[in-house]
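A note from the maintainers: we've had questions about how concatenated examples are separated. There is no special marker in the raw files; a new sequence line simply starts the next protein. For clarity in this README we add a label.
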Amino acid sequence: MRVHFTVNGRQQEADDVWEGESLLYVLRERMGLPGSKNACEQGECGSCTVRLDGVPVCACLVAAGQAEGREVVTVEGLADFAKQRAEHGSCATGATGATGACGSDQGASGTSGTSGTSLQDAQHWRAEGTDSQTGEGTDLAPVQQAFIDAGAVQCGFCTPGLLVAADELLERNDSPSDADIREALSGNLCRCTGYEKILDAVRLAAARQGEAV
């Protein structure tokens, strides 16, 4: 099976993909993108979290064939994804509407501005390619810098998934409560930090995001 999809702004093609091959395997072993970590392979730890058409998913649970024609953003492309979002607006900056990342003001639940990013509107985003497919040599995304500044990185194994999940949260909620942060990161396990530094990092990223508006 041949799979065509976009990874971090670049058109990619994977040949001889067998039916049971996961998106995580393709990203790591075929695309040379080791940022998404292979840990539980059961969707329990969140270390392989990527964005598929804007939506956070565990790459270990997504069959590679399901990515056909779709957009994947890994931690390697997070900085460029965040940069494009900042340039064109997001729900964090109030840029809602038919072409905004957060969709229309009226969500599926019938409440204004509380439905998050719909699949249809998330597909609007296309990360721009950089000189390095691995993201090296590029500026960090705000949430990545916040994790460093807050001391939220220890062994680093869980960090890529946490970064992707936290970035998605801050895209749709510019001022998350602690409960919001805990809920958004509830699918991501960390054995080192005790989570407090991670919470600090997301709070810091949110505060800096608010200052930049």
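[label: protein 2]
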Amino acid sequence: MTFYPTDRLALFIDGANLYSAAKGLGFDIDYRKLLEEFRKRGVLVRAYYYTALVENEEYSPIRPLVDWLDYNGYRLVTKAAREYTDSQGRKRWRGDMDVEIAVDMMEMAGAADHLVLFSGDGDFRCLVEAVQRKGARVTVVSTVKSTPPMASDDLRRQADNFVDLADLADIIGRPSRLPRFIQESRAHERDLEREREHHDPVDEADADA
């Protein structure tokens, strides 16, 4: 990433998109480390986090994260998720934050030198272009290393810089909270792989003997 110490930075985190990208790469985001990392790279003006919330539920799994972010340096932008029924008759929720992200990025383009967008959504290409016309640089953080890739090719081309989230895993990531039996299975697979890598192949002459 190309950052300058005097850069005024603003972060725009599409919560659902970043969660999906990190999940596809097998790790979780440590939001404390994320904030610390970008504070090292310039003058952090604002860090926005966008998410839709399901209302009227006794417990929401995202609520503890949202509350923590709100008290620890992030500007929360939320709205109520809309309920709908999918083709299989299952209850789902939808919450598109694109408009909120676009409004805030356009407003911050005059107050920040470098905007960092944590999303791979191709719908943001025109937004990035508009922000660039105002004189701000834009870095997009997403990934093409997941299956399927999360970053739109058009968005990557438009951005001044593209950073693959996989390259930040050791900096802002933490191990994914998988069930214990899955963690143990994966650890066993890694041990077997290391054993295969370090095993010296039997010499053909010795094998014939």
